[in-house]
Specification:
By secondary structure, the chain is of the alpha/beta class. It has one domain: Uracil-DNA glycosylase-like domain (Uracil-DNA Glycosylase, subunit E). It has 9 helices and 8 strands. A hairpin with a 2-residue loop joins strand 1 and strand 2. It is globular. The relative contact order is 0.15.
């Protein structure tokens, strides 16, 4: 497990106020700043340190947003306060921060409509976030939270692959993470930008042995094209998932 950055930022995490909601003023600070360039800032957050190497499904976003960052810190601190073992804390932090709220509801609905739960022989896609969590790994192309002019980075501006600070994470750190996960895993990129990065890595032969699901929309409520994109691609996605499931 790659915990080098965790060990670097752990002293600062331990100084944060306990048992209360954390704010941007407390987390988007010099103490947690990994790197900065132009209008971009990358901050540390502890929820993508845990890698589930036995996963059957990998769901990939672009970067953790502010909400995920806050939830990750609060969950991690809760685990520290309970004096739990570090791997258990990181596992729980990942679980707590993965696509929470309305985004998770939209995600589960679309996965169910594509028949993912049937391919996995489970009762519903919602159980991937509960008792069937061992089947799932969630991650981001950019491992740590990235902000553009103080707002969540969407992957569009500036261009991810043309920005050295970001492309290093996308083309070096991210494929190294996927290489640790079982082959024949189904990778589900959320939205056009995440899919573009994964296709880039596949073409560059940096991804081998995984199955890539194309056309899955980003589940954010702010994605106004979500329903239309899903309907356009639903048949092809359902067919790929069914065929993938037959080979499990």
């Amino acid at each position: 497990m790659e915990c080098s950055l965790l060990s670097k930022y752990l002293p600062a995490i331990e100084k944060l106020p306990k048992g209360e909601p954390l704010t941007k003023d407390q987390l988007m600070t010099e103490e947690f700043l990994i790197s900065q360039g132009g209008d971009l800032d990358i901050y540390y957050a502890p929820h993508n340190e845990y890698i589930n190497k036995d996963a059957k499904i990998v769901i990939v976003g672009i970067t953790p947003g502010w909400s995920q960052m806050r939830i990750a810190f609060e969950s991690f601190m809760k685990g520290l306060a309970a004096e739990k073992e570090l791997t258990a804390i990181l596992k729980e932090t990942k679980k707590a921060a993965s696509f929470s709220g309305g985004m998770r509801r939209n995600l589960i609905s679309m996965l169910d409509q594509c028949g993912l739960y049937e391919a996995l022989h489970i009762v519903g896609s919602d159980t991937l976030f509960e008792r069937n969590r061992p089947l799932l790994h969630t991650t981001s192309v950019l491992k740590y939270p990235v902000f553009f002019r103080g707002n969540n980075y969407t992957g569009h501006q500036p261009d991810l692959l043309k920005t050295a600070m970001l492309s290093e994470y996308a083309t070096e750190v991210f494929p190294e993470e996927l290489a640790q996960i079982n082959s024949h895993t189904l990778i589900i990129p959320l939205g056009i930008t995440a899919e573009r990065i994964i296709r880039h890595l596949y073409t560059a032969k940096q991804l081998t042995g995984h199955i890539i699901l194309s056309g899955f929309p980003h589940p954010s409520g702010a994605n106004g094209h979500r329903a239309k994109q899903f309907e356009q691609n639903k048949y092809a996605m359902t067919d790929l998932i069914r065929r993938w499931g037959e080979q499990l």
